[in-house]
Design a protein that fits this description.
Helix content is 25%, strand content 25%. By secondary structure, the chain is of the alpha+beta class. The chain folds into two domains: 192 residues, 3-Layer(aba) Sandwich (Rossmann fold), CATH 3.40.50; 97 residues, Methionyl-tRNA Fmet Formyltransferase, Chain A, domain 2 (Roll). The two termini are 39 Å apart.
Amino acid sequence: MGTGDVGLPSFRWLLDESGCEVVAAITQPDKPVGRHQELQAPAIKTLALERGVPVLQPLKMRAPEAVSAVQALEAELIVVMAYGQILPKAVLDAASVACLNLHASLLPRWRGAAPIQASILAGDSETGITVMYMDVGLDTGDILLMDKLKIRRRETGGVLHDRLAELAPRSLAAAVSQLRNGHAPRVPQGEPANYAAKLSRESGIIDFAAGHCAVDRLIRAMNPWPAAMTFLPTPTGTKRLKVFSCIQCRKTKGAAGEVLQSSPKGLFIGTGDGAVLITDLQLEGKRRLRAAEFLNGYAIAPGTKLLTSL
C-alpha cells in the first residue's frame, strides 16, 4: 500500500527479491495534474500494472467495500509506505501475520506526513527508516526495527527523500526475515513525540527574520516541493519568487528581508542576525535559473524589501 515515489524501491524489492507473492497493490486514485488537469496514475500503480499485479484504488479506505476488498485478498503481510490515508482497524487486522509501516523517521522523533522535511528544518543530525507495526493511532505503533541514516550538511528534502527510499528495502528485508524466523520484536515507542504536519504551498514561505540558519534549513527542506518562496515587489505588482538554494553569510548583516546586494554570485538578503546568498531561484511565470543568469535579465535593486505575502 503506497502512493508516493518513496515507496517504489521497497515495492520493487517485494516483487523481485522477497520471495513473497504480491497479491495486490493498493494506492490512491489517479489525480489531475498540470495545466490541462490530465489524470496521472501514482507510480506504484504504473509499476504494478507493468508486472501484472492487481491494483485497488479506493477513494476512501474506510468504506465498507474497500475493507471487504482488502480482507478478500487473504494476505499474510501488508506493507505500507506513504499511502496517504488513515487505515481502519479492520484493514490493519486483515493481515494474518502483520501490517507494517515503513516510516521515514526514527520514531517517535517525527510522526505524521512530512518527517523528511521536519528533520531538516529542526537541524537533526540523523534520521532513518522505522519499521513499525501499525495500530489505529498516527504512527504510534510498536517498533520492529530502525535503520539510521546521517543527514548530510547541505542535504535537501529531495536528496534525503531519495536516500531514505533506497534505505527502506534493506529495512523491509530485515523485518520480513525476522517475521519469517519468528523473532520479530515489538518495542513500544518512547517519548517525546513530535508531529510533522502535511506540507502545503504556504509551508515554504520564508520569514527572513527567523535568522540565517532557519532560512537556510527551510530552503533546503522545501527543495524541490513545495519550494521555499518569498514575494518580490515589481512595477507590475508583487510576484512569487521561489528559492531553491542559498549560502549562509554570518558576517554580512542587514535588515530581515532586505536586498543588500545584487551581484554575479546572487542576491544577498538580510536576516537580522546575518544574511543569506540566494543562488538558485525562479520568478513566477518564468523558468528556474541560477542567480547570475536570472539577474542578467532581471535587476533587483539593493534596498528592495522581500515580503511574506502577496
